[in-house]
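Preliminary data (for renewal application), zinc ion complex.
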Amino acid sequence: MGGGIIAWAVLVGLLVGCRPASPPWPSPATFDATNAYRHVIELVAFGPRPSGSEAARRTADYLAAELGAVGLEVEVQEFHAATPRGPMVFRNVIGRTRAARGPVLLVGSHYDTKWLPQIHFVGANDSGSSTGVALELARVLREQRNLWFVFFDGEEAIYDYGPQDGLWGSRYFVEQLRATGRVRDVQALVLLDMVGDADLTITLAPNNTPALLDQVFRAAEALGYRRYFQFVPHEILDDHVPFLLAGIPAVNLIDFQFGSAPGRNDYWHTAEDTLDKLSVRSLEIVGQTTIQLLGQLRSAVRR
Ligand SMILES: [Zn+2]
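Predicted structure:
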């Protein structure tokens, strides 16, 4: 009988262990934008970090170390692919918070920079800004359950986007979700890209999940940031597209008006994409809105 009681206690313990209570969702105010900016400085210091480069490998190591340092379970998803420049190695870096029952929320950012051998392209905004914000989000949200922070390699096309070029990391990540039968576990992907422009306008394209667009506007409104978020009429190709194609709800928070005047995008993929174009405040607006948005999505499931 004693053995039975112990077995029962172990079973109860296991059941409780399966469903650990998530701590309260953090206030958006806990996002420390100076931390995010510090990461951006580190990323830019690696220099140009196109996929397959030594700098990209060092960046992946940095991401893995930072995610591990805040207590996340880290996976480096390494794969090889035949590219227009020959066989290349890619590394997605994934940080996971503790698992529990229920769906998983993904926060994504690419970390590679476009291969532009003619210029010294450090990608402070594209992709330093979103990578810095996502790392700080991982710190703030580390105690929450079922959050995956996914840092994609190879977002940038080596030449031109198409079925054979670009979105290397996100396409592979979604293939792996399919292969492991986990597509249905994912509630949503919130993708961040080019979120540091001092003149911030998050341009929300039609190729996003409509219900998530509504939630983004709700989150921005709740924080008094609605004016920084705008619909645009053209589609934007980014790492969220492979998720949409797999039927996974996804939304891309991207400021695709990164330029010398409002509405222009002339700093994009040029030597002008440097730290001086960014502001800590923009990182803060996007970081806080993402915390608010993820909190809304999480409570929508609990209800
Ligand atoms: Zn880019």
